[in-house]
Amino acid sequence: MTTVRLPLFPLNSVLFPGLVLPLNVFEERYRAMLRDLLKTPEDEPRRFAVVAIRDGHEVAPSAPGMPDPTARPERGPAAGFGPDPLRAFHGVGCVADAATVREHSDGTFEVLATGTTRVRLLSVDASGPYLTAELEDLAEESGDDAGALAEDVLRSFRRYQKRLAGARERSLSSGTELPDDPGVVSYLVAAAMVHDTPTKQRLLQAPDTASRLRDELRLLRAETSIIRSLPSLPAFELTRTPTSLN
């Protein structure tokens, strides 16, 4: 078992390998993390792990508020995640490589990172200025019939895009080239579909590429059918969350 210890960045969303993650970082715990990452030699990756939050708050409250206006806000690296941070996070995450890190004059950071590999969360350490975690690498197995499944998923995804564009009264570019590698297809489609965090988390931690593609095929067919039957989706924009303020 190959393990590694990396800084931990919890989010209310799921990062997939190969996908780009833009971040605006303002909380002190994550600013401290980035200051340390900037000490990494330029020829080495600036790596941290992204995990989806199961139970907790992405941004820790900074002032008293509801339901108790007299309560003191939590402080420290685990603020917002309860007494046992390990239980607050989903068990599988993704390593991110911060290719671009820009520090602003007010001490905040603008980060552009890319997901690289899946990891399993083994333990969380809150003893420092920010959370760190012991992580186990998760190999991506192909599974049976991944190639054929990827072709089916791409066809269904194109139909889904067209239906979604029609529901939103917008057009999509038909000239966009989509990948043909089954693993890349599975992650791209998982990230592009409009679904909640638990569903995306299930796709991230699928046992192999073929299993993820089968799940996506079921989801795409179901969603396309729903959109066809219910073309007006006034609440769709509510599913499009802005870039995390962390």
Automatic annotation (TrEMBL):
- Organism superkingdom: Bacteria
By its UniProt entry, which PROSITE patterns does this protein fall under? LON_N
Annotated spans, Disordered: 59-80
Chain ranges of the Lon N-terminal domain: 6-224
Q: Membrane-spanning regions, if any?
A: none
> Which is one Pfam family of this protein?
LON_substr_bdg
List the InterPro entries. Answer: Lon_prtase_N, Lon_prtase_N_sf, PUA-like_sf
SMART domains attached to this UniProt entry: LON
Matching entries from PANTHER family are given as: ATP-DEPENDENT PROTEASE LA (LON) DOMAIN PROTEIN (PTHR46732:SF8)
Protein name, as recorded: LON peptidase substrate-binding domain-containing protein
Q: Which organism is this protein's natural source?
A: Streptomyces eurythermus
